[in-house]
Write a structure and sequence with these properties.
This protein is an all-alpha fold. It has one domain (about 5-170). About 80% of the residues lie in helices and about 0% in strands. The protein is built from seven helices and no strands. It has helices at about 5-15, 15-45, 60-65, 70-95, 105-135, 140-165, 180. α1 (about 5-15) packs across α2 (about 15-45), α2 (about 15-45) packs antiparallel against α4 and α4 (about 70-95) packs across α5. The longest helix is centred in the middle third of the chain and has 32 residues, at about 105-135. It is elongated and about 55 Å long.
Length: about 180
């Protein structure tokens, strides 16, 4: 049996596992980009404003009250990098992982709702982790590992929502005949 035939059988036999593997590869790839953007923003672009006070308006009072960010630089770095990562993940998962044929507009709206929740949760959890680490004398370690830990945690809710709600596949591709497979 050739390796190609075995691969097809694996992907058919374990279709859901294969989707999760592809989702994980897409997530890992978009997270690498996200982390690069995050660290660039944190250590270069917003370096001087990491602990800058929040503006005096209702939104940032809420952000400060909830502990979402310790300063404007952290807030901007988390929100911008996470947004870029999720845009990349949406496109790749729709096209490659789930091969979705559901309505693009509906999928985009549902995705935006999930992303808003996820950005809020990851920003809050990441900031809380960094504050915890800083309070225990490990600021640098918290800055470096906080984002990857929180990104991995988000998989617990993003995979099932992407798989079963956002990137649905309504139409199955026609089955290949034995002649088409052998060509």
């Amino acid at each position: 049996m050739s390796n190609n035939t075995e691969k097809v059988k694996f992907t058919e036999k374990y279709a859901e596992l294969w989707k999760f593997i592809k989702f994980s590869i897409v997530g890992f790839s978009s997270t690498i980009v996200e982390l690069g953007v995050f660290y660039l923003l944190q250590y270069v672009v917003f370096k001087d404003s990491l602990t800058a006070p929040m503006p005096d308006n209702a939104f940032f009072k809420f952000v400060s009250f909830t502990g979402l960010a310790d300063g404007m630089g952290y807030f901007y770095a988390y929100v911008i990098s996470t947004t870029i990562g999720y845009i990349i993940a949406f496109i790749l998962n729709r096209k490659t992982t789930f091969k979705a044929d559901s309505n693009v507009l509906v999928s985009t709206i549902l995705y935006i709702i999930m992303v808003i929740f996820t950005i809020g949760m990851t920003a809050w959890l990441g900031t809380q982790f960094q504050i915890f680490m800083a309070n225990h004398g490990h600021q640098a370690l918290g800055d470096v590992i906080g984002k990857p830990i929180v990104a991995a945690l988000a998989t617990a809710w993003t995979y099932p929502i992407n798989r079963f709600v956002i990137h649905r596949k309504h139409k199955d591709a026609p089955a290949e005949t034995a002649d088409e497979v052998n060509e």
